[in-house]
Amino acid sequence: MAESKLDAGFIEEQKRRLLETKAELERISEGMEQDQRDRAEDQDDQTEHDSGDLSQQIFTREMDATIEGQTDRRLQDVDRALEKIEEGSYGICDDTGEGIPQGRLEAMPEAIRTVEAQQNFERERRPPA
After folding, report:
1. How many C-beta atoms lie closer than 10 Å to residue 84's C-beta?
2. 19, 82 in Cβ contact below 8 A?
3. What is the pLDDT of residue 5?
4. What is the mean pLDDT of residues 91-105?
5. What domains appear along the chain, each with residue ranges and CATH number?
6. In angstroms, rounded to a whole number, what is the distance separating the alpha carbons of residues 126 and 124?
């Protein structure tokens, strides 16, 4: 495995940024859960639904599911990046063991893979068309 060549000050700043991102993602997730509960209560109160209302409800649920999935995946990456800081492996790709460029980490502190490894990961995860 490669050794991280990042200085301690940079890693400490990234940790601060990751903790802020984690708190924000958790707030988003909690807000979405509350919105879903509120919508469920509102929908229970309605006795008649027209097709426009039903279409809007379906669209909203699908959008919420998409955002929730993206938030959960990003939160997992943030948690993994924080683990890597504690392990001393921050800045090292989880898949290849190569160093992640500092510029990538500056732009995306939760990056746990190089760009190439991330592209491969997403390609493998994507269902066939």
Report:
1. 20
2. yes
3. 82
4. 97
5. 8-125 (1.20.120.910)
6. 6
